[in-house]
Amino acid sequence: MDWIISDELGLTVGHLVGWGAAGAMIIGGVAPYIPQYRQIKRTQDAEGFSLYVCLTLLIANTLRILFWFGKRYEIPLLIQSIVMNITMFVMIHLCVNVRKKNQIVRARERIFTAQPDETARWLDQRSSITGREKPHRFYDMDRKYFWAWTDFQSYLDCMLVFSVLGAAITYLLIEVSPFVELIGFLAMFTEAMLGAPQLVKNCRNKSTEGMSVCMVIMWTFGDMFKTAYFVIREAPTQFWVCGSLQVSLDIIILFQVWLYRRNTAAARRLHRGD
Question: Key word Membrane present in the record (predicted)?
């Protein structure tokens, strides 16, 4: 009788540990962005946060969701991708609104939808006839304005187009194993390289001024836990390989904090006007 109770207790504890680890996987990925959101909300300044971080994570997690249909992995990892995408859209919405409020002179709006040349010429002719000013909404796909649009809907539209195209291609090639594996690799590799722009920026500046060390520390511990979870739960190879790469980049960035500590301190004194 005792051993039956012991087995049942062990099973219960095992379930609790598994659920706790799954919950940590889902919540842990978005946790580093909570302080960033609160800081932008408090200061009403979004210039220190790059929307390309959101783009990287949106692409990575959308590809990971598509990968699930070709090679089923654990549901908590799928939920994590969905939650992360929602979080990135929340961050984009905040940044777009804050930047609009901070405009001293109203800038011309840039949106995602492409406007045909014929329509543009028609608007020009109509404006010259009526004497009315042309609309200030510019519809273009100029690379200079990519992911720098002035309305939140454009970001939604862009990711919707990417998701629909990706889903259509995946549906057609779902039986092709190399293609499915490639989707998984691209998803995880894209996410793994999230810290690369920050690493390059630190190298160029020879300083880590303006970078949140707390955020990088949270990245490091989160990525270490995530990679261990991938290995223990026997997730597809792409997950733990790219997770290891992500941890390596985090450690290199933390090493830069020590390497450039004197330059960073000098930059902070200069910024304070000491």
Answer: yes
